[in-house]
Design goal:
- By secondary structure, the chain is an alpha/beta fold.
- Helix content is about 25%, strand content about 25%.
- The protein is built from 7 helices and 18 strands.
- The strands form 3 sheets. Strands 1, 2, 8, 9, 10, 11, 17 and 18 form an 8-stranded mixed β-sheet that branches.
- The relative contact order is 0.19.
């Protein structure tokens, strides 16, 4: 592939004299081929950037385990009002995003505007749900309180003991596996190069990220590198300590069931609850699959599916929807969410020029896919972090505690290569 030549006017701010400007095989190398890495690569390629993805199994990652809830309202937690704003912006973009992705890839994503019902099974859960409802209303969100009887009218399979619930018609869902497959195809059609090997080390030249070295020894030069490796983002060798993302793995176990035709419709929308103090959700797919999840376990890199984890999910799901025990069990799996210290994503430039992050999305990776792609595309082409992403700069965890923006050198894009997004 021809290396791009860049004029002095578009040389990196932290670069050298024009005579020493480095040429690269790519404008951008994305480390990690999960949905966050893929959407970043796709959006970068649509902006005309020569883009590569380094991942041994693109389209995999935590998204293959995720349930795919697009639920900024029912996922609201105390102290996360700033994150709520980003979640809402991404949710608003989803209909147009999936329509564009379907056209670009020729694949459907399983997007469903079906709404969510969050229910309470006892008095304590009801009180907690009432508090959540009050927080939602204070935050200007659309949420309707229902009696237990009204909940069962909406979802007849619910247990008779349901004490009340919240109807949120604006919280939807998508199939993350189909989303990943569509993004992979869209990337391929947009000209993204895939290197199916693990990125072993970041290349740093004159205090600037300059590409990566793969586990097979191949070197990929790039003007900019995006670290989008999910829970593995903090393990890439060669990253200066001050730029290492503070991302940890958070284990989640999930059960998948199949709803036979004679039981359909089993559930018409996503159903959520807190059972024995732990969150539970049931996500019905259009194809008859029912996803039940998920545990939250701080166990490092362990991805073992345990009998205890599966038992707890099925026990709590049975308490919520007794008929679930009649359904065939088709899959059990476990994955690792990328958690950050404040459970919010790390988006944009790091203290190392040329290195950006798209990681730390924790439980909101699927929801934040559209906005993450847009934010990183802006960073890579303009050098500026959009205002909506400013609170989520990786610099908020810099050693000196400063989140002041740094000058980040974009890649210049000839007008003839710019594509609409």
């Amino acid at each position: 592939m021809r290396s791009p030549t860049r004029s002095p006017a578009h040389s990196p701010t932290h670069s050298f004299t024009h005579s020493s400007v480095r040429t690269s095989a790519y404008d951008v190398v994305v480390v990690g081929g999960g949905i966050i890495g893929l959407v970043t690569a796709w959006r970068a390629a649509l902006r005309g950037l020569r883009t590569a993805v380094a991942d041994p199994d693109p389209g995999g990652g935590a998204a293959r385990v995720a349930a795919g809830m697009l639920a900024p309202v029912t996922e609201l937690h105390y102290g996360e009002e700033t994150l709520l704003g980003l979640n809402l912006r991404s949710a608003e973009r989803y209909p147009a995003f999936v329509a564009e992705l379907a056209e670009a890839s020729g694949r459907e994503t399983g997007y469903r505007a079906c709404g969510t019902l969050a229910v309470a099974l006892d008095a304590d859960d009801r009180s907690q749900l009432r508090e959540l409802h009050a927080l939602q209303l204070r935050s200007g969100l659309a949420s309707e309180w229902l009696s237990g009887r009204d909940c069962r009218r909406l979802e007849p399979m619910l247990a008779p003991g349901v004490r009340g619930g919240l109807r949120v018609d604006g919280d939807h869902q998508i199939d993350p596996r189909r989303l990943a497959a569509a993004l992979l195809t869209a990337c391929e059609r947009a000209g993204v190069a895939f290197h199916r090997a693990r990125a072993a080390r970041l290349s740093v030249v004159r205090d600037r990220a300059a590409g990566v070295v793969l586990a097979d020894g191949a070197a990929l030069g790039a003007d900019q590198v995006v670290l989008a490796g999910g829970s593995l983002s903090g393990r890439l060798a060669g990253v200066p300590p001050a730029a290492v993302p503070p991302v940890r793995p958070v284990k989640g176990q999930v059960v998948r069931l199949t709803v036979p035709g004679r039981y359909a419709p089993f559930l018409s929308r996503t159903v959520r609850a807190v059972v024995r103090g732990g969150p539970l959700y049931l996500v019905p797919r259009e194809n008859g699959e029912l996803v039940v999840g998920a545990t939250t376990e701080e166990l490092g890199w362990d991805t073992t599916v345990t009998a205890g984890g599966v038992y707890e999910l099925l026990r709590d799901a049975h308490e919520l929807v007794p008929g679930i025990t009649e359904l065939p069990l088709t899959e059990t799996c476990a994955g690792l969410r990328p958690g950050s210290p404040d459970n919010a994503p790390l988006l944009g430039p790091t203290v190392l020029p040329g290195l950006s992050l798209a990681s730390g999305h924790h439980r909101n990776g699927v929801l934040l896919t559209p906005v993450t792609g847009d934010v990183l595309a802006a960073v890579l082409t303009t050098g500026e972090l959009p205002p909506e992403a400013a609170p989520f700069t990786p610099l908020r965890f810099s050693p000196d505690g400063s989140a002041a923006p740094l000058t980040h050198s974009p890649v210049s894009v000839p007008a003839s290569r710019e594509r609409s997004v």
